[in-house]
Amino acid sequence: MNPLPQSYESVVHMLAAAAANWPEREALVCGEDRLTYGEYFEAVAGLAEALKTRGANGQRVALIMTNSVDICIAMFAAHAARAQVVPINPLYTAAELEPILRDAEPVVLVHDDAPRNAVGKVLERIEIKNVIEIGPGTKQRAFDIRAAALPQPLPTPESLATLQYTGGTTGVSKGVDLTHQQISINISQREALLPTGRDGERILSVLPLFHIYGVAMCLHNAVYAGATLVILPRFTPAEAFTLLAQERISILAGSPTVFIGMISDERFQSADFSHLKLSYSGASALPEALLDDWKMATGAPVLEGFGQSEAAPVVSFNPLNGEYKAGSVGIALPSTEIQIVDAADGITLMPNGTPGELRVRGPQVMRGYRNRPQESAVALRDGWLYTGDIGELDDDGYLYIRDRKKDMIIVSGYNVYPREIEELLHRHPQILEAAVIGVADDYRGEIPCAYVVAASAQSINDTQLDDYCRENLAPYKRPRRYEFIEALPKTNVGKIDKLALRTLNSNAATE
Predict the structure, then answer these.
(1) Would you call 121 exposed, middle or buried from its count of C-beta atoms within 10 A (0-12, 13-18, 19+)?
(2) How is residue 9 annotated by DSSP?
(3) Domain residues of the chain, as ranges?
(4) Which helix (H) or strand (E) holds 419?
(5) What is the CA radius of gyration of the chain?
(6) How many C-beta atoms surround the C-beta of residue 161 within 10 A?
(7) For the chain, how far is it from start to end, CA to CA, in angstroms?
(8) What is the DSSP letter of 223?
(9) How does DSSP classify residue 217?
(10) What 8-state DSSP symbol labels residue 87?
């Protein structure tokens, strides 16, 4: 196997190298805000010094910030102050923020104007020594204070870099402890399969930059390659189409929600994709029909990958220079092992083509969950990270994610994977989106229930859908209920929120 591309001691070292190599190159663009790499570096150095004087060294700095140049600067500045950064969803309510902040115990909280009310309510119940308001809509921007040099010493590879709280679609969020070494080597691993040009690529970030996927595929990817990161504060298809042309975007990092939203928009057929070379997709698998539509209209492929916060986050990807397989999330990154084991015993290896639980081993795997030794022991066993995902490998080593282990439906003793049903529903021309969950049934134990979003100006009923599924699925896999809704609930990175669907189903059952 070829050696990994260059790996830095920390992302702070990576930013310093980018500023030294391309000081005049445009680094960050968001609305009217434009910074070169030299200005980016100086802003990080200035804010890092301010954080260090507030006791951040060796402690945690929480960021509750929307997409802007400020969150990019604040993220690197917290690292440069030798603090562990805690990025938190700015859409969270006070009730959602409180348990995370109590668990993280930050000494500094940095927030912008958007979550001010929720932050204010939390601060009535939790004491945080230092609170800094920075960003659009505030009196101070992250680039207002600059310094010529970073605080010394810089972070070590072994020190904690990030405390990333899991999305919470499965219940209570857990804090994932990641070191600088784990994050930095994962950047190099991803670069081995998805090399980014050094001649001035322009990456459009429509993803939330507090989320580890947005950080990996946008924030860190751009700095590693000296690329320009163009930031969309909030995704709308119209704004994305405008920036694709206006900013000459060559790489788009998105999610299924992004691609579905853009393809469904009336501007899609006339949009300017002339500069676009490729797109990345993660968070959840894309329907194959959508992949075909996107490639046909844009001429640029969508490369799908798989990751988890617990793996810093990237595990696999369809390679840029290699075989691409639709429906697959690609091959393992270098220095990463993937195995499919029996979902019940967690040990027995499953043959290729047979689904089981995905486990992963590699240098990017987390240290553990903060303050949760029991959960850490369940997730990390004998050197393996048990992902909780159901997948299978083909004979070429390509990984296919079939479902979350907990999402598997057991119908009359048969294992049913919602992803298979969802793929079938997505292929129906009158369906825009679909999600399947298991619901309790007195006779079968569980039955599949499909939540369906019909395509605009189209109509379809449950009888027609049942006929369609009857032709293509074994009887026990066929949904026994169809619920038509205007939109599927989503998490902030575009994952279908099945916890919300289960709540919706439970509420409907009690009415």
Answers:
(1) middle
(2) S
(3) 331-405, 408-510
(4) helix 418-426
(5) 23
(6) 25
(7) 59
(8) H
(9) I
(10) E
Q: How far apart are CA 479 and CA 255, in angstroms?
A: 26
- Output DSSP code: residue 349: B
Token duo for residue 72 = 């990019």
**Along the 511 residues of the chain, how does pLDDT read in single tens digits?**
457 899 999 999 999 999 999 999 999 999 999 999 999 999 999 999 999 999 999 999 999 999 999 999 999 999 999 999 999 989 888 888 999 999 999 999 999 999 999 999 999 999 999 999 999 999 999 999 999 999 999 999 999 999 999 854 445 689 999 999 999 999 999 999 999 999 999 999 999 999 999 999 999 999 999 999 999 999 999 999 999 999 999 999 998 778 888 998 999 999 999 999 999 998 566 777 788 889 999 999 999 999 999 999 999 999 999 999 988 999 999 999 999 999 989 999 999 999 999 999 999 999 999 999 999 999 999 999 999 999 999 999 999 998 877 788 888 767 788 888 998 899 898 999 999 999 988 778 889 999 999 987 667 888 999 999 998 888 889 999 999 999 999 887 778 888 899 888 888 776 6
Tokens of 240: 């994305």
How many contiguous H segments (helices) and E segments (strands) does the chain have?
15, 26
Strand partners, 86: 62
With a CB cutoff of 8 Å and minimum separation 6, the contacts of 258 are 206, 207, 235, 240, 252, 494
Tokens of 48: 């890092």
- d(CA 67, CA 235) in angstroms, rounded, equals 10
Check if the beta carbon of residue 81 is closer than 8 Å to that of residue 57.
yes
The two structure tokens encoding residue 151: 């605080």
Judge whether 39 and 28 are in contact, CB under 8 Å: no
The CA-atom distances, in angstroms, between 152 and each of 39, 145, 500 are 19, 18, 46
To the nearest 10°, the Cα dihedral for 262, 265, 267, 272? 10
Which two structure tokens, joined as six digits, stand for 305? 């990958």
pTM of the model: 0.86
Separation between Cα atoms, residue 409 and residue 286, nearest integer Å:
21
Neighbours of 197 (CB within 10 A): 12
CATH homologous superfamily, domain 331-405: Luciferase; Domain 3 (2.30.38.10)
Pairing of strands 431-441, 445-454: antiparallel
| Contact criterion met (CB below 8 Å) for 232 and 243 | yes
Sign of CA dihedral 452, 233, 209, 264: positive
The CATH-assigned architecture of domain 408-510 is 2-Layer Sandwich (3.30)
